[in-house]
Amino acid sequence: MLPQSLLFGLNLPVTYFRYVDILVVEQDDAVADEILELLGHWKMDAVRAVDVQTARTLLDAGGIDLVLSELSLPGESGVDLVRWMRDQPHHRYLPALLVSGEAGRDDIVAASQVGVEGFVARPFQSEELRQRILEVYRKNRSERWTRDAVDIWNERLPADEAKPEGPVVVFGEGVTDEKRLSDPAQRPVMEYLALARNVIGALNEAAPERLARYMILPTTTEVILSLKRPGVRDAIRVILVSTRCQGNPTLMARLFSINRRSYQATLYLVYDEVDEISAVHRQGLKDLGVRTLRRSRIDEERMQSIMTRHLGAEPVTAAEEEEEELAPQQIRSRIVDDIETMSTLPPIPQVYEKISKLARDPGSDLKEWIDVIRVDPLTCATILRQANSVNYGFKAEISQIDRAVILLGKNVVVGLVASASVRTALAAIDEKGFRLEDLWVHNLAVGFAAHILSFPLDGEVEGMGNVDGLGLHVDGLAVLRSINLPKRLGLDYASINAMAAGSLHDVGKGVMVFAYPGLFPLVRDELQERRWQIPMLEAERDVAGGLTHTTAGDILVRKWQMADQLGNSVLSHHAPAVDDGLSFLVGIADVVGQILYPFPRDGGYPLAKAFEDEDWGTARPFLPEGFLDQPLMSPAELVTLYHTIGPQVRHFTEEMRRSIG
Question: So where are the chain's domains?
């Protein structure tokens, strides 16, 4: 039973001091038992020392948050204990309260000089003791929190360090300075980083030649950039990116798994709450080789295991790094695995599936085509609109779908259906800065340009429609005949559909937004950072490595079981092989589409002005790779073709935009 002098005013929540460990230094057994019983009632962990020497031993063992000591002790006094504490690096800032029933003025002055936080006069009431402990502990905790935050922040490796001397740990956390780190809301982060700092320090003490350091980066973009800087990249052994890191940590983890080479750092995704990453995604990330850790479960043993495993690894040699180059097929396989694990690509719309099947069947008749088109009002309206956008010399409007199909040709119909199908399949996309209509219009323009450029003017080809459907005057047709791009490219009309290939060429940009939420804003930011002087493909490589719209588009086209030629043109139109006529054709048509309808629409690309000025140095990155060095077509001919077909491509595209809008 506690004495009334201690129990007076005892009306406290028993969990208030759950995380406070106190060292009680008291020689009198009865008094010590009374204090320990009271502290135990408050759920405080307490240990007792009978003299200063014992107290020093317990303090050096660690785990003490506050010292409550009798002033008068056998041998050395409570003041002597505090004086010793202030001389020890590990105890210098530990708070101390002295208890005494007869402290004189000299005692108080001496205690103040050595840094005692306060006195508790005996006899005392329990509430008085509680308030003094609470006041001192809170004040010290706040000061210690700030000191630790400053130390952790100042000891980090600067982000712009040219070449670290030893291995590096990268922490991705949403803190930008020591003030932000010391915010109470960041307590889990602070404790976690303090633990990591102590473990890294201990490893360095055990092996001074190790020279391990750590970085704290606030955004996923900065983490990605650190992996691209040669001097730093080679030193990074482990990356721990948390869900508090600004940006999209889950996306970054997926991109890392796609592009990771075997010699590169290991990445962990750290989360605080279970619902921050769904169980399905946690399993998916695990399947992709990304490890997830819940912060609250990272204790000293776990942290030590992580750091020992990775900081003890041998550095990678330049020869080893050069040896391992990821093949495009390996990247593609990883992307397929990632999408199948973490997302679901949209299914092919039924109308396109049926039309493309008919297009592959030489024996299909017109009635079968009409039956498929008529059941889809959007497709029906699109085809009729296109048929009426060209002056065939008829006085009446074309209102019969069979007549429209005959006039346009089956290839154009397939291309229009492909374009509408992509728009339908990706309609659910909602991403900052991304407008599906802008992408659809750009793709459609490239489809029309590819169709016009591929049209056989030397004779009729089944499925290509009527030459009047091009909408070009005699002079324009003469230009096309003189350049005769189909003959130069050796186009095989039996196996290609230029309209469909052009309409699908950039479908991968939509696939990336669909399957990788948060990626498009990063790509757009990169384009803005580079003042739009690079094409989107290069920005994608800078941000996402091997994950590009060409690869993503090829994956979708093949998932939809489209013709191999379409997949090849989607994958290769930016860098067509000399013998790949369709991809080269789509690459040329894409130049027309970039000038007329750039994507994004508000992008400040320089291609239009460079074309006008014939500034081929500026235009080079936006042309098919190697175009200025190949023998198939001169830059002057490209300019001529653009001016010849550009107005009609714009006319067709605007008609289609109106038919949908």
Answer: 4-141, 155-316, 430-660
* Cα separation, 438 vs 435, whole angstroms: 5
Return the sign of the alpha-carbon dihedral for residues 67, 70, 71, 76: negative
Whole-angstrom CA distances from 554 to 77, 506, 513, 587 are 80, 10, 15, 15
With CA atoms as reference, report the closest residue to 54 among 34, 32, 30: 32
- The answer to whether the beta carbons of residues 653 and 444 sit under 8 Å apart is yes
Distance CA 151, CA 194 (A): 9
Name residue, tokens 């054709």: 585
As a residue count, the chain comes to: 661
- How buried is 481 (Cβ within 10 angstroms: 0-12 exposed, 13-18 middle, 19+ buried)? exposed
Query: What CATH number has the domain spanning 430-660?
Result: 1.10.3210.10
Contact between 365 and 390 under an 8 Å Cβ cutoff? The reply is no
CA nearest neighbour of 95 among 108, 110, 81: 81
Q: Classify domain 4-141 by CATH architecture.
A: 3-Layer(aba) Sandwich (3.40)
Q: In which residue are the tokens 């200063």 written? A: 52
Please, are residues 498 and 541 in contact by the beta-carbon 8 Å criterion?
Answer: no
Residues 6+ apart with CB under 8 A from 116: 78, 79, 82, 96, 97, 98
Same fold, 4-141 and 155-316: yes
Instruction: Give the DSSP letter string of 555-618.
Output: HHHHHTT--HHHHHHHHHTTS--TT-HHHHHHHHHHHHHHHHS-SSTT---SHHHHHHHT-HHH
CB atoms within 10 A of CB 33: 13
Interatomic CA distance for residues 532 and 552, integer angstroms: 22
CA–CA distance from 335 to each of 96, 283, 556 (Å)?
A: 59, 17, 11
pLDDT classification of 600: cutoffs 50, 70, 90:
very high
167: three-class secondary structure by DSSP: coil
Report whether 259 contacts 545 (CB < 8 A).
Answer: yes
Give the Cα separation of 27 and 32 in Å (integer).
7
pLDDT, one tens digit per residue, over 7-23 is 333 333 333 344 578 99
In tens, the pLDDT along 51-62 reads: 999 999 999 988
Q: Mean pLDDT across the stretch 233-238? A: 89
The reported pLDDT for the residue numbered 262 is: 59
Tokens for 189? Answer: 């982060």
CATH T-level assignment (fold) for domain 155-316: Rossmann fold (3.40.50)
Tell me how far apart the alpha carbons of residues 415 and 495 are, in angstroms, rounded to a whole number.
Answer: 14
Please report where in the chains the tokens 């006041």 appear, as a residue: 135
Q: Write the pLDDT tens digit of every residue in 154-185.
A: 999 988 877 898 999 999 999 999 999 988 88
CA distance 486 to 588: 12
Q: Identify the band that residue 318 occupies on the pLDDT scale cut at 50, 70 and 90.
A: very low
> What's phi and psi for 89, nearest 5 deg?
-55, -35
